[in-house]
Design brief:
Helix content is 40%, strand content 20%. With 240 residues, it is an alpha/beta fold.
Length: 240
């Protein structure tokens, strides 16, 4: 499987290294769903070539590969980029291998079999700590054709600049930090307003309505109401 160029330019790049096609496909789908761009390699030498080509923000690396050992790959990746976050995948009984991985520079590990949710949770933590929770270069969040600049506080959809109030910007940033996830009014209120006061649900409705009017105006909608559950943002192409 080759890299999957479905994420927009500026998206987080995650290199997935494993010789099991079913597993790499599963992780690629999860990475894409998070709004990131997956790259796949099925052996050690392929991983090193892919890393030089795509410059990943993080690597998910199997400890057992058919050519180079995962530890060898890890050490070479570390030699070329000492700050690159690496999440190791190891067999449940490979205790010594896990210790070797951690001592060789792996930032975290997950044992097989694992849940995709656990891998994504660990990966998000590594990206956050490395400063790549947004784009590592310029603090940009990208979802489909929607771009939000953390540092510049600029928002664009396609070629159109969108002017938002401070609170609308905070609301959009929170939605974009959880792409394709349904967020309740309570969650939004707690994170955007740091409050759970009575009547807050109406406040959320008003701000979502205003944000949607700006983001989705005369375009395919990205912000959706999930009746009885909350709101979700997803790329317009998901609706095709």
């Amino acid at each position: 499987m080759s890299d999957t160029p479905t994420a927009a330019p500026g998206a987080i790049r995650v290199l997935i290294v494993d010789d099991e096609p079913e597993l790499t496909e599963l992780l690629s789908v999860a990475v894409t769903a998070a709004g990131w761009r997956p790259y796949v390699a099925q052996n050690g030498y392929g991983a090193l070539r892919a890393a030089r080509r795509c410059g990943p923000h993080a690597v998910v690396l199997d400890g057992m590969l058919p050519d180079l050992d995962g530890i060898q790959v890890l050490r070479r990746l570390r030699y070329e980029n000492t700050r690159l976050p690496v999440l190791m995948l190891t067999a449940r009984d490979a205790v010594e291998h896990r210790l070797d991985g951690l001592s060789s520079g792996a930032d975290d590990y997950v044992t097989k079999p694992f849940s995709v949710e656990e891998v994504m949770l660990r990966l998000r933590g590594l990206l956050r700590r490395s400063g790549a929770g947004e784009d590592a270069e310029d603090g940009v969040r990208v979802l489909g054709d929607l771009v939000l600049g953390e540092r510049t506080r600029e928002v664009r959809r396609g070629d159109t600049a969108i002017s938002l109030t401070a609170k609308e910007f905070d609301l959009l940033r929170f939605l974009m930090s959880h792409p394709r996830q349904v967020l309740s009014k309570t969650q939004i209120l707690d994170h955007v307003w740091n409050s759970s006061f009575d009547g807050g649900g109406n406040l959320v409705e008003v701000y979502v309505y205003g944000l949607r009017a700006k983001i989705d105006k005369e375009r395919r909608p990205m912000i959706h109401t999930v009746r009885g559950a909350g709101y979700v943002i997803r790329p317009a192409e998901d609706e095709v």
